[in-house]
Amino acid sequence: MSEEKREGGLSAPTRHPLNQHDPIFHDATDLNNELARVYDICHGCRRCVSLCNAFPVLFDLVDGSPTLEVDGVAVADYQKVVDQCYLCDLCYMTKCPYVPPHEWNVDFPHLMLRAKIVNYENGNTKLRDNIITSTDLIGKVATMPVINTWVNAANRNETLRGALDSTMQIHKDARLPEYKRPTLRQTLQPRIDAMISEDTDARVILFTTCYCNYNEPDLGDSLYKVLRHNDVTVEIMAREYCCGMPKLELGDLKSVDHLLQKNIPQLFEKVQKGWKIIAPVPSCVLMFKQELPLLYPDDERVLAVGKAFFDPFEYLHKLHKDNRLKTEFVNSLGNVSYHVACHQRVQNIGPKTKQILELIPGTSVKAIERCSGHDGTYGVKKESLAFANKIVQPVVRQIKQQTPDYYGSDCPVAGRHIENNLKDMDSSQEHAHPLDLLCKAYGI
């Protein structure tokens, strides 16, 4: 039997360009036909039912239909499945036996993305979603003097959170991140070295990301310290804009293109001079590594930037392979429960974080490969917080069973979501991002 027809073939999955410039891509009838085709394949398989809420919603629709098949589901209900997909990509990467090069050509996440794009173009998007995906704008405003104090206080005020729940459908029980002053970029700028290494493998642009710049600058600072400790020259861009992942997940391709035109030219200029690029948030790395190249497969600048982008521990592992990573650790970490972020797994780089942490004497790392269910926006919305909390429970249970000295995730948002759910269970275990743990092991 040919590789293309065999279920679960041995060939590596092939990701096709999104093809968003083809008029048929935006045709509602063609989209619904493709949704029906893929939904029917998923209905006949059902092995992804435990990953997220999109598949239970789909199967409930089928099982509740008059025919007990996809043809009995109202086309208007197709969107209910789309609304539950937050593009973690785990179905494509870990479960589905029908991904290309299989002839059935199932790419469930990118089909959901296509549906989100068409939905957005038809104006079927909430004001709330347009606002909360404008992460850079919110961060700029929320870190301004005076406003910063008010925003953080409002996030902790039950009355104001109740009003936000009723007016904007931001769940009153969702734990929102604080906005920090000074920002990461403000603290890093004075520390950038004038001396630049002549070795291009030891020159890095730190793409700070909206989240680390405005919400967790200490995490970006830990990455900076680790890189400098390993004699890597670190710079930041004169101006930095959102990677575009939140807007992509919304289906807002116009904003994605706008942000690309701001980021790519200046990053490409650095890449041409041999600089590598690192971001401390897996979703931002994935955006430049995979999503933008699939959106713009003919743009040489996008492809070059994508090839130069590294996950932090992927880069550190590269240093280690070249015998350039310093391994004189002064502190053991004991037992670590390590949640593998979905958007890091999709990068297909292997367990680099686990491998680096296990270089530390007296350190044992147990990996947890389940989605946290947060996604950044899914875990704060009124209609989906309960599902996000349900999805994270297998991760929470494993951490409690492992009783580690530390637990954390490469994705800071996932890490905080896990922490919040453990706190609700009165857990005393200590949360720490792997980069913070590495700083602790180095004693820096």
What brief labels describe this structure?
alpha/beta, Rossmann fold, globular, 4 domains, 4-stranded parallel β-sheet, 444 residues
What does this entry look like structurally?
The chain has 444 residues and is of the alpha/beta class. The protein has 4 domains: 99 residues, no CATH class; 42 residues, no CATH class; 127 residues, Rossmann fold; 116 residues, Rossmann fold (3-Layer(aba) Sandwich), CATH 3.40.50. 49% of the residues lie in helices and 7% in strands. It contains 23 helices and 8 strands. The strands form 2 sheets. The protein has a 4-stranded parallel sheet, sandwiched between helices. A 4-stranded parallel sheet has the order 6-5-7-8. β7, α22 and β8 form a beta-alpha-beta unit. α2 packs antiparallel against α3. It is globular and about 65 Å long.
